[in-house]
């Protein structure tokens, strides 16, 4: 007998109709890709960031289409506790709950371009290399960890109560936290930025710890991560050509698929985790990178 239950149809399985979402760094790049995917699936999506004008433009561009869910700009600094709690208060007053949280806000931080230049003075000997790396900004490291790693811990915990409240809406349909990390947190190469890669590795492990501890405490909230490969963003380029893919990836082997990822692929992965389709998934790290990690030295 063929099961024709409506819940198997994509419009039901991947629907976010009636769901409330918050995407940090949702005005540009990967955050904007995910936001559009959620809104297209029917969600009401709050997008946050420090630059209100960027958020307002992203929301206006979508809302003018009058299709799917609404995108709402909400200024919030994900590294500032007062700002986080102020945003939480607004969502609590407006909706009283939250179903989806995407911790996407991030930056690149200190870089050492000489690592890929054999003739650079910093590559002359051990002393030169050591001091070249030592000269990276200590404050820059602290700032980068604050946005790429610390923010995941503090934003998630600030909204944990509202997320648990959202899990009460539909039996066995838990709220979802999706943390955007990077393949840079999985590979053993520095890619010219030790700080960024180590912060993303920390974010991945932090996510797994949160999933474990929250699960053990019987709190009905799922926590997963997405580790993207080469994607267009403010940290790379608005558009990435085939020739630029491996320049960005900086691997010892090129990306097998010979292209960057698309917005639809990013949104689709996030949509899986946020929807009923991914309702039994928690504590996982999904790598979407065109095969980069498969052919480069990595810890997975």
How would you concisely characterize the structure shown here?
Keywords: NADP, Oxidoreductase. This protein has 300 residues and is of the alpha/beta class.
Q: What labels describe this entry?
A:
7 strands; 300 residues; 11 helices; alpha/beta; globular; 7-stranded parallel sheet
Describe the overall structure.
With about 300 residues, the protein is an alpha/beta fold. The protein is built from eleven helices and seven strands. It has a seven-stranded parallel sheet with strand order 3-2-1-4-5-6-7, with helices on both faces. Helix 3 (about 50-65) links the parallel strand 2 (about 45-50) and strand 3 (about 70-75). Helix 2 (about 30-40) crosses helix 10 and helix 6 (about 140-160) packs parallel to helix 8. It starts with 9 loop residues before the first helix and ends in a 5-residue tail after the last helix.
């Amino acid at each position: 007998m063929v099961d024709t239950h409506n819940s198997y149809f994509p419009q039901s399985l991947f629907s976010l109709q009636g769901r409330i979402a918050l995407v940090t760094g949702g005005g540009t790049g990967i955050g904007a890709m995910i936001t559009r995917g959620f809104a297209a699936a029917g969600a009401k999506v709050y997008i946050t960031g420090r630059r209100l004008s960027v958020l307002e433009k992203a929301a206006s561009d979508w809302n003018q289409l009058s299709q799917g869910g609404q995108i709402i700009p909400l200024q919030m600094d994900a590294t500032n506790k007062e700002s986080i709690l102020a945003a939480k208060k607004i969502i609590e007053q407006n909706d009283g709950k939250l179903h989806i949280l995407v911790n996407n806000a991030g930056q690149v931080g200190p870089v050492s371009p000489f690592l890929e230049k054999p003739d650079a003075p910093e590559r002359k000997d051990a002393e030169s290399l050591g001091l070249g790396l030592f000269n990276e900004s200590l404050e820059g490291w602290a700032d980068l960890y604050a946005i790429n790693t610390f923010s995941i811990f503090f934003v998630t915990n600030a909204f944990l109560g509202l997320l648990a409240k959202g899990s009460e809406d539909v039996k066995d349909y838990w709220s979802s936290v999706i943390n955007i990390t990077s393949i840079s947190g999985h590979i053993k190469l520095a890619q010219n930025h030790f700080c960024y890669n180590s912060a993303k590795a920390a974010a991945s492990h932090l996510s797994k710890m949160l999933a474990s501890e929250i699960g053990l405490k019987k709190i009905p909230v799922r926590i997963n991560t997405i580790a993207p490969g080469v994607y267009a963003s403010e940290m790379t380029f608005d558009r990435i050509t085939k020739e630029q893919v491996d320049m960005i990836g900086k691997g010892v082997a090129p990306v097998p698929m010979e292209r960057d990822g698309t917005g639809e692929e990013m949104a689709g992965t996030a949509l899986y985790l946020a929807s009923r389709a991914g309702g039994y998934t928690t504590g996982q790290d999904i790598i979407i990178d065109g095969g980069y990690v498969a052919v480069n030295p990595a810890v997975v």
